[in-house]
Design a protein that fits this description.
- It is built from 7 helices and 12 strands.
- By secondary structure, the protein is an alpha/beta fold.
- The chain has a single domain, classed as L-arginine/glycine Amidinotransferase, Chain A.
- It has a 3-stranded mixed β-sheet, with helices on one face. Strands 4-5-6 form a 3-stranded mixed β-sheet, sandwiched between helices. Strands 7-8-9 form a 3-stranded mixed β-sheet, with no helix packed on it.
- The radius of gyration is 17 Å and the shape is globular.
Length: 259
């Protein structure tokens, strides 16, 4: 994670962002701290911190900073020039922490924002912020099956805003955010596909973190919260309103390190 010390809206690179609708820095800090506390105190997850950098307000969204599998790191090739300087800072953090095997794709690729790991499969999202062509680079680097999913709504510009990896047999989606072919692919590969409501999708309820037993998501995604509780999961709702002003949520604020 990365503390939101410099988080604000300095530019507009997705439909949620407006320089006329600025974040409340104090509230953003409290919301970030609640998420951090949920991970470390309530769930006992270990969280490493990346140092925030002035004039890089979106570094707080660490999910875009890499895809890490088996200790190998695919760095982002950001489409938006405003975010491109982040890559060097993320790479330095990984180098300082002993990571040695890196890939920076030739084609646009925005880390876990557009690459979600489900068992031995990597689901990737396109076309809004990552190129479909980056799939082959990821497949060669990680040696995993890579399955591309086409997104349909620019408001849900990263895959992690439209799909949640719930457990080894389950994902959650809002179906209209995918093409017919991509929905078909998901249903063929994944035994259980939970369908979120439009309200829960627009509350960023699909931008969530799960370990299969515990799930952390937007406190406004009440329908998904009820579904997960019914499944017997421990559910941890958190507020993310200030980060959604910039098009981010729980998962966007979190990069998973798979050693």
């Amino acid at each position: 994670m990365c503390s939101p010390d410099f988080f604000d809206i300095e530019y507009e690179i997705n439909p949620w962002m407006s320089t006329d609708n600025q974040v409340d820095p104090k509230l953003a800090k409290r919301q970030w701290q609640e998420l951090y506390h949920t991970y470390t105190e309530k769930l006992g997850w270990e969280v490493d911190l990346v140092t925030p950098v002035k004039n890089l307000p979106d570094m707080v969204f660490t999910a875009n900073g890499a895809l890490v599998i088996d200790g190998k790191v695919a760095l982002p090739t950001f489409r938006a020039p405003d975010r491109q300087p982040e890559t060097g800072h993320f790479k330095k953090w990984f180098e300082d922490n002993g990571y040695k095997d890196f890939l920076q794709p030739k084609y646009d690729f925005e880390g876990e924002g557009d690459a979600l790991v489900w068992n031995d499969t990597v689901f990737t999202g396109y076309p809004w912020r990552s190129d479909k062509a980056s799939e082959n680079e990821l497949k060669a680097f990680f040696g995993k099956r890579v399955v591309g999913l086409q997104l349909t709504d620019a408001r849900f510009y990263h895959l992690d805003t439209a799909l949640t990896i719930v457990d080894q047999e389950t994902v959650a989606i809002y179906p209209p955010l995918f093409t017919d072919e991509s929905r078909k692919t998901l249903h063929e590969l994944v035994p259980h596909v939970i369908e979120a409501s439009k309200a829960d999708a627009y509350a960023y309820g699909l931008n969530a973190m799960s370990d299969g037993n515990n799930i952390v998501l937007s406190d406004r995604a009440t329908g998904l919260i009820a579904q997960y509780k019914k499944r017997g999961m421990s559910v941890y709702p958190v507020p993310i309103s200030e980060f959604q002003k910039s098009g981010g949520g729980v998962k966007c604020l979190t990069l998973e390190l798979r050693a």
